[in-house]
Amino acid sequence: MHRRCKRRRPQRAPPEPDLVRIRDLVYQVAGIFHPDNKLRLLQDRCGRRMRELKVQSLREYLECLTIRPIRQSELIALLNEITIGETCFFRNQPQLDALRRIVLPNILQIKSKLPLRRLRIWSAGCSTGEEPYTLRMLQIEEAGGTLKDWVVEILATDLNERSLAHAKAAVYGNYSTRNLTTAWRQKYFIPQGDQFQVNPLARSNISFSRLNLSDDTRMTFMKGMDVIFCCNVLIYFDLASKRRVIQHFFNNLLPHGYLFLGHSESLYGVSEDFRLVHLPGATAYVKGERALPGGKSI
Questions:
Q1: Range 93-297 has CATH code 1.10.357.10
Q2: What is the average per-residue pLDDT within 199-205?
Q3: Structure pTM?
């Protein structure tokens, strides 16, 4: 009788020490963590920068990130490679419908007794700008109705400088604009060859700036927000970093404020400060104790 020999799975080689050091540096600076099974992705991003700098080894590239004069600019360049996002206009329509029909009217009712009629909406992790421009277009649509006589400020921030440059240029192709109706394209966009540029009206009242969500000092200055959108951003963070960012969001929201995350994201196990609210086709997190009209809270 022959015994079958179990095949041993080949042991994975330990990650290269210099790559681990780069991983730890990225985590320390930006809160973005690459587990061992994602280090190949980080190595690929480092490889792009190494080819650009004509650097031959990870050890030499680590020096570029830590002790050479270019360390600050190179770290930003690496973060630009790591945080390439994908988005489009009107990405989550049920979420936007809930904002227009339930969340904003609720906030306006609470703030109507205040002398200053101002709303502040923050697109945190705005990527190439489709989200803040979508919010601006919705605000314009409501300017003669729900938001009449209200000043709306939209703050759009991202870690990636290239994404912010794209957002400020406001020129988009068919993929980004695929959810737009013909009427919305004609109303808010100017054709630029086979692309479309957001028109001046829809580009106004939006402030774009670079912000690292792991920068505790900068985050403390983002006060007085009514609504925060942070969609598909926290997937880059580990639990400790998520908790830090969410605590800042909680502190920066006004007592009635709402936080929107991506449809596959939640605060389960991250924070108990917010209350989850179920809206038609969407969810949000509310800071205050009042239940939303038309929404179900738990």
A1: no
A2: 96
A3: 0.86
